[in-house]
Amino acid sequence: MPSIFSRIVSGELPAYKVAEDGRHLAFLDITPLVEGHTLVIPKKGVDYIFDMPADELAALHVFAQRVAKGVQAAVPCERIGVAVIGLEVPHAHIHLIPMNKVADMNFANPKIKVPEARMQELAAAIAAKVDGGSGLKEAPAAGESAAAPVPAELAAQVKGLQFISESEAPLEAVAYAAPGGDLSNAALLKLLGEPADAKVETVELTQFLRNHTADDGVLGDVALSNRYKSLQMFMKQDMNGVKVYRVGSEPQIHAYALGRLLDGTLAGFKTVLTET
């Protein structure tokens, strides 16, 4: 069952985010001990922090160091206290707590209530102080996608290809600055700039491309079929969790073939299917 943190990672739940990269996320605790109390998590769901592989645990702490310095620069305090409890939420996380005395780190203390406007102010102030940049991107407005730079190799693989359904449509290389983890349909549609009530179906990439990778398929051209084979191999080898999302309803369906790059970007291609 997804935890509250994995739902934040997927975009299903909101959070006062202060920093992010491809593998990690930091956001304000909504039931803090003090103002600026921040949580740092890996985007990949791991219950117990010390079950993480050594390299991933080290990377999490390096990310936490950057965030801690941002918190200290934005919130007046003597030190940033660090705590790992491991019992509250079944998703590994580190507490970063601005402190002026040891008692500020006592989890038996009553939690404080910080108004929403102040939480937003704190999040913005911390994000602005994170060394090297927070990594956060503005959320897309309604109807706009969260587009990111398309890798050159992906663009070259897709260039000039046409997808044949009941009509022909070009393939377009795309990339999106996506939250980590599995995306809910609502989060996916928002990311793609599609209507919030659009129908979403998923198909395996090999199944989706089967008529285009076959030498005797719909393209009628072995060279083009080989290009589709190359594209399919590239996506399966260089991306994680590749899926094809069919968005919308007949007669025209938007198809997005997407997977994760190493930096967490969601990338692939999109096209339009005509089906009656």
Describe this structure in words.
This protein is an alpha+beta fold and 276 residues long. The chain has 2 domains: 4-129, HIT family, subunit A, CATH 3.30.428; 152-274, Nuclease A inhibitor-like (Nuia). The protein contains 7 helices and 12 strands. The protein has helices at residues 4-10, 54-74, 116-129, 152-158, 185-192, 205-213, 222-238, and strands at residues 17-20, 24-28, 38-42, 79-83, 94-99, 162-164, 168-170, 172-176, 200-203, 240-247, 252-260, 266-274. The strands form 3 sheets. The protein has a 5-stranded antiparallel β-sheet with strand order 1-2-3-5-4. A 5-stranded antiparallel β-sheet has the order 8-12-11-10-9, sandwiched between helices. A hairpin with a 3-residue loop joins strand 1 (17-20) and strand 2.
